[in-house]
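Re: that backbone. Tokens:
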């Protein structure tokens, strides 16, 4: 936390510690417990300072342990941006211009891998769980990219997990999307197997 001092030596309310982001805004990461009234005063003083500095978006990361501060921030004009298991992200737009804070990520990325061996044989699998379990349907290896994972690495990992076969990523073949936020963005990859693979592979 920092204190702003007027030229006459009078100390202003304590301000929230913040770092600048790359888009003219600031990011606050709350870590220490505090009284809601103290937080409200600090937040108001900080917003006034950031407005004078010409800041735009304000991001406040609230850990689950400090959830008691959320209502105070909302009353000052903040709104929910996204939530993770251990924190809530609140945002606020300072200038009287169009709000350009990006929406939270709303899609998962699904992947499918076309795996060929040196004989140009296609690797297919049968699922032992999910809606295709027990249907005797053969399909290419598929899955969901994990958080923070490179999509190409995800394609290699899914093939390895489902078949035990190591592959090398070659290219993206196609992608498709859906307007429904609950549906994944799907990408189709072509991988080459490092070793000879069977034409069909049940897992």
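Recovered sequence:
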């Amino acid at each position: 936390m920092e204190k702003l001092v007027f030229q006459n030596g009078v100390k202003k309310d304590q301000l929230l510690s913040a770092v600048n982001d790359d888009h003219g805004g600031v990011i606050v990461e709350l870590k220490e417990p505090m009284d809601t009234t103290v937080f409200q005063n600090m937040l108001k003083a900080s917003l006034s300072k950031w407005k004078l500095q010409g800041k735009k978006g304000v991001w406040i990361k609230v850990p689950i342990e400090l959830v008691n501060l959320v209502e105070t921030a909302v009353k000052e004009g903040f709104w929910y941006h996204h939530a993770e298991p251990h924190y809530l992200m609140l945002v606020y737009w300072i200038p009287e211009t169009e709000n350009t804070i990006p929406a939270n990520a709303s899609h998962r990325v699904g992947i499918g891998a076309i795996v060929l061996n040196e004989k140009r044989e296609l690797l297919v699998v049968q699922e032992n769980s999910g809606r295709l379990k027990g249907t005797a349907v053969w399909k290419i290896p598929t899955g969901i990219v994990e958080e923070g994972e490179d999509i190409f690495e995800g394609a290699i990992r899914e093939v390895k997990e489902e078949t035990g076969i190591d592959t090398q990523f070659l290219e993206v073949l196609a992608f498709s999307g859906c307007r429904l936020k609950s549906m994944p963005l799907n990408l189709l990859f072509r991988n080459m197997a490092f070793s000879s693979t069977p034409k069909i592979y049940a897992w």
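Residues 36-52 form the longest helix (17 residues). Residues 1-11, 196-200 have pLDDT under 50 and may be disordered.
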